[in-house]
Amino acid sequence: MKGQEWYQATEVAEEYDEKRFSRGGRLIDRREKQAVLDAIGPVEDKRVLEIACGTGRFTVMLAERGADITGLDISGPMLREGREKARHAGVDDHLEFMRGDAARLPFPDDHFDTVFAMRFFHLADTPAKFLTEMARVSKNQVFFDTFNRFSTRSLYNWLLPMGSRLYGASEVEDLVATAGLELADAEHDFVVPYGFYRKVPDWVAGPFRRADTAIGGSPVGDALASVSYWDARV
């Protein structure tokens, strides 16, 4: 995985949410959470695994909605932040955080109803291996996002501390098929890359997001999108 040492640093975990999801980054946070909720639907009593759960943004959100959820991450400091977030939300006894390797998931086959990963596959050096493991432990659904090769994301990719693996649509479709999955749905969004929204205040981000959404809804929107959300079935 790219940037493991950087990602597991305590100071990175402590500042992670504030740096990415404050200011204009709140728009990203809301959109990503809505994408997860739209994809996996009602979660009450559903057994869910989140891969690379980080600080628990999605893990805690789904626990609050009644999911039986496990969050797995390689970073101890990230998991500490997640546990604290769960405690503040009052759901620390309704979920489980585990430290582990997504390439060797410590669960039996078909153990979860849904397995998902957000902000993960851009770091994956062997994406087919990770997606196959996700498919193995899911009995129904696998959901994940990617950053797209032919998009504005590529313009600043080299500036990022971990870089990004960028994907074309055909590459993702091949990965899905190799993992024994069938693609059920896909959504594409964010012509303007995430990095821009994180750097600007709300009053700047709002108008740009409205324009971004309008372009995204046009005939050229999918081709220009920097982020894609992929919903697959076992």
TrEMBL record:
Its EC number is 2.1.1.-. GO terms for molecular function: methyltransferase activity. It holds the Pfam family Methyltransf_25. The keyword Transferase applies. Residues 48-140 form the Methyltransferase domain. Gene3D superfamilies: Vaccinia Virus protein VP39 (3.40.50.150). Keywords: Methyltransferase, Transferase. GO terms for biological process: methylation. The keyword Transport does not apply. InterPro entries: Methyltransf_25 (IPR041698), SAM-dependent_MTases_sf (IPR029063). PANTHER family: METHYLTRANSFERASE, RHODANESE DOMAIN-CONTAINING PROTEIN. This is Class I SAM-dependent methyltransferase. It comes from Halobacterium litoreum.
